[in-house]
Specification:
five-stranded parallel beta sheet, globular, alpha/beta, single chain, 2 domains, 455 residues, Rossmann fold, seven-stranded mixed beta sheet
């Protein structure tokens, strides 16, 4: 555990190059890195311009070459024909997260939650005697790097499954080759449901959370609402949710203002919402854009209700509201986990104790909602693996995961997981709660209990 803790500290620290490998070394090689004082994996990320000087021996660029016809035997495979990433002694998992860059606070929390859960499982003997190992790659919140990292995890590292990868704007770009490879993607953070066998969605989608924000607005007597969302599939998902919710609640939908992915130019979108008379604005953006929108409304003196989904709002922790400062007062976000991190609840308290032991009492990761979320997402994955009694064939995994529709999994902090067969069954949870932020107290308070959308 000490080695893994040291490795995560290196992952979340500053580096000279900011490459995926410098920021998040291969946990599977932690012993070598600790003994020799070397990085566990020195392959450079082809999408990172800063890595160019360190990648003289690398010739492949996965972000532009999608035609890998004959991938080499995955490093994690037991032998030819066996399940990738599984040996007699280990199970290799992977993830790609924004550990550096503008979304680093969220990425560090996401990685912390995964790692804490794996450390806990390994301390208890692993899964049927197999130790859990992790390859964590940093994508810097850059869509091409995320896609490249996902390819690397599948085709080069040979992971058994990808655990809680994050990047709403980029994840849709991985589904085709994930489906071709058959690699499980468990609990991707805030994507749309691709309805493929390999992907299991453990929280409500952006569209559903926008509906729940709109339901709340209607309950408060608001009559005119709008949406600021990214110009991509995630924004369109939010728009579809808004159209359904405004129709169900009899509200006027004043419009959908699109912003470019990763753009910090949000001023015109906010001005257009004000001019259209929006009394509440729902946000289908990333967390940086959400913080900028809060600040812009404050600068304009625009008294408006702002509500975002968990992925864009960082609800329950400091990820987004810290960046917004005083402008975050009253900000509302959807909770994909049922409870804020400050809640006095047995499941939350169990995570918080582990998080504080991991990173220190009062640290950012002991209050990060993303850490709480991925801790329980990973616990759910390990529960499925444990139920397979050592036979980790993908067909067995899918059969067990899809049986949750008849025997739901309740871990206390997540919505109840009731995965079932396709076409709809891999959206394993529904509904969301809403929480509101207080700047003075630095706390989130649940203002609408966990429930499904009205419309």
């Amino acid at each position: 555990m000490v080695l893994l803790l040291s490795l995560l500290a290196a992952a979340c620290g500053t580096t000279d190059t900011g490459t995926a490998d410098d920021a998040s070394p291969d946990v599977a090689d932690a012993d070598d890195g600790a003994d020799n004082g070397e990085e566990a994996d020195d392959e450079s990320d082809p999408e990172d311009d800063a890595a160019a000087d360190n990648s003289a021996d690398e010739s492949a660029d996965d972000s532009t070459d999608d035609s890998v016809d004959e991938p080499t035997e995955p490093a994690g495979a037991a032998s030819s024909g066996d399940v990738p990433g599984v040996t007699e002694d280990s199970i290799l998992l992977g993830t790609t997260l924004p550990i550096t860059g503008v979304a680093a606070a969220a990425g560090e929390g996401l990685l912390a939650g995964i790692t804490i859960a794996l450390d806990e499982a390994n301390a208890e003997g692993g899964i049927d005697g197999r130790m859990l190992e992790l390859v964590a790659l940093d994508d810097g919140f850059d869509p091409p790097r995320l896609v490249s990292n996902a390819r690397r995890l599948i085709e080069e590292e040979g992971v058994y499954a990808m655990a809680s990868p994050a990047g709403s704007q980029a994840l849709p770009g991985i589904w085709d080759f994930v489906e071709d490879a058959g690699t499980i993607v468990w609990g991707p953070v805030s994507p749309q449901d691709p309805q493929i066998q390999e992907a299991y969605i453990l929280g409500p989608g952006r569209g559903e959370q926008m509906q729940i924000c709109t339901d709340y607005a209607a309950e408060q007597g608001i009559t005119q609402v709008g949406l600021i969302g990214q110009d991509n599939q995630l924004g369109e998902e939010g728009n579809a949710g808004m159209e359904a919710a405004t129709a169900a609640n009899g509200l006027e939908y004043v419009g959908f203002e699109r912003v470019e992915v990763l753009s910090q130019d949000i001023s015109s979108a906010v001005l257009n919402m004000r001019d259209a008379g929006a009394e509440a604005i729902m946000l289908a953006t990333d967390n940086v854009q959400a913080a900028l929108i809060m600040q812009e409304t404050q600068t304009l003196g625009y008294d408006v209700v702002l509500c975002a989904d968990n992925g864009g709002g960082g609800t329950g922790g400091p990820n987004t509201v810290d960046s917004a400062g005083d402008a975050a007062e009253g900000f509302i976000g959807g909770l994909q986990v049922q409870l804020p991190t400050n809640t006095d609840n047995e499941a939350v308290a169990a995570w918080r104790e582990l998080a504080e032991a991991y990173t220190g009492e009062g640290s950012a990761q002991s209050t990060s909602n993303f850490s709480l979320q991925t801790y329980y997402y990973t616990r759910a994955l390990l529960e499925i693996l444990d139920r397979l009694d050592g036979d980790l064939a993908y067909e067995n995994f899918h059969a067990e995961a899809e049986s949750l529709v008849d025997d739901p999994l309740d871990l206390g902090a997540l919505p109840i997981l009731a995965c079932g067969p396709l076409p709809e069954g891999h959206s394993c949870a529904s509904g969301a709660a809403l929480a509101q932020y207080s700047v003075a107290d630095e706390t989130w308070t649940v203002i609408r209990d966990f429930m499904e959308a009205n419309g």
